[in-house]
Amino acid sequence: MNEFDVYAEADRLAAAYLKSLPNRPAFPSQAAIDALSGLDDHLPEIGETPGEVLARLDALATPATTASGGGRYFGFVIGGALPAAHAADRLALAWDQCASSANNSPAAAMIETVAARHVLEALDLPRDSAVGFGTSATACGLSCLTAGRRALLAEAGWDFDRKGLVGAPIIRFVVPETAHVTVIKALRIMGVGTDHIIRAPCDDQGRIDPARLPEMDALTLLCLQAGEVNTGSFDRFGQLIPSAKRAGAWVHVDGAFGLWARASRSLHHLTDGIEMADSWTTDGHKWLNVPYDSAMAICRHPQALAEAMNSDAAYATADARAQKNLTLEFSRRLRGVSVWAALRSLGRSGLEDMLDRNVRHARRLADGLKAMGLNVLNDGPINQVLARAGDDEATHRLIKTVQAEGTVWFGATLWQERPAFRLSCSNWRTQDADIETALQAIRRALD
Ligand SMILES: *Cc1c(COP(=O)(O)O)cnc(C)c1O
Predict the structure, then answer these.
(1) Whose CA is nearest to atom 14 of ligand 1?
(2) Looking at ligand 1, which residue's alpha carbon is closest to its atom 12?
(3) Ligand 1 neighbour 232 (Cβ under 6 A)
(4) d(CA 152, CA 172)
């Protein structure tokens, strides 16, 4: 095989895989998982040809993939990949741009500038916000939280870049007690020990209870949620953000998947007031249905994010809008192209249709579970369904039985310290028939 034959072969295998998605088990068989041992060896002395490498991958790994790109996978919050987003990523792979700044790649800089504009338009956030295209909501959350802390310290007259945290005024980080583990991780990386994170009490849907919100001041960073990972619930932004702003706090919103509710007219009200926050994170690789790794750090104070993330060097200067100055990465791939392509191909109406369809699917699932006598725990404002089957033992058994059958896949979680299961409708491929298939699989497992 010459170089181009290898690419053609990869394309052929990729297309065959995508065509097989409707017929694949939602989770690989034990036999396929066992066969992964064929990959488990040491660095070869003599390299294989690219064709051999590709063939090995397809023979051993393809059968053991999770069909999370297909319509019958409801685990975690895992979207699929829209065709335009997938295809654009593949072309960008051939371009192999170092998308750090316009000096490196004018094409990449233009695409990500436009992608940022589309994102702000779709999410109806302040149009002159900075948008950094990072690898994950974890990484983008870290960027926003550290930018927020640095800005609060600057207001207090403290030069964080020079002095760091030694002797600095103490910033109080207030998060919902249901905050996603990656927000806690970001704070740990930033040197905020878990003992010092202030947990705001929440109601039974995982939203901060405004009556029990801890004190805030000009040295407080309040982190809110758009889409709690189990229930999909939204903090009461219209109430919480104005009081935080009056106190002089910085408000960050983790909207890894829920922020996209803003792009649907029927869901937009859930996020009322969110536009008053200082920074937001959201994923592309969840509800927007673009390939991994795709997320966005959005900051209404472009300078604050650009200064915190600045990586200008004598040989690599750029302006505040350069992606290397808005993300953790210095060298980086053209990450925003799949977001650009997804939004171009959907348009406003296609995006809204996809979101509304997933929400309709989640409601149908919730109704079906209730009809079977299961206990649905969330009010289900968007795409998540959280439920239990009788006691803890019955809940475990249901999850295991459905997973073992392989028609559909969803996972276990803990809600208010007791086992539950969670279905997420986040995939553009999921059809009404897949929802009925899921309900039938659950009914079989109960029988
Ligand atoms: C998935 C998720 C995250 C983390 O996102 P990654 O892109 O996986 O790092 C953070 N918050 C919420 C609510 C999530 O659902």
Answers:
(1) 256
(2) 256
(3) no
(4) 10
pLDDT per residue over 105-126, tens digit each? 999 999 999 999 999 999 999 9
With beta carbons less than 8 A apart as the criterion, state whether 72 and 408 touch.
yes
Q: 259 with 297: CB under 8 angstroms?
A: no
Ligand 1 probe mutation, 180, 181, 185, most atoms within 8 A of CB: 180
Cis peptide before 283 (omega within 30 of 0): no
Mutation pick for ligand 1 pocket among 142, 177, 229 (CB with most ligand atoms within 8 Å): 229
pLDDT tens readout for residues 354-371: 999 999 999 999 999 999
Strand runs labelled E in 210-266: 220-225, 250-254
pLDDT digits (tens, 9 = 90+) for 153-180: 999 999 999 999 999 999 999 999 999 9
- Nearest atom in ligand 1 to the alpha carbon of residue 228 is 13
Instruction: Give the DSSP per-residue string, 279-299.
Output: EEEEESSSTT--PSS-EEEEE
Ligand 1: residue of 78, 133, 138 to mutate (most ligand atoms within 8 A of CB) is 138
Contact present, 224 and 251 (Cβ < 8 Å): yes
| Helices then strands, each counted (H, E), the chain | 13, 11
Query: Is the CB of 134 within 6 Å of ligand 1?
Result: no
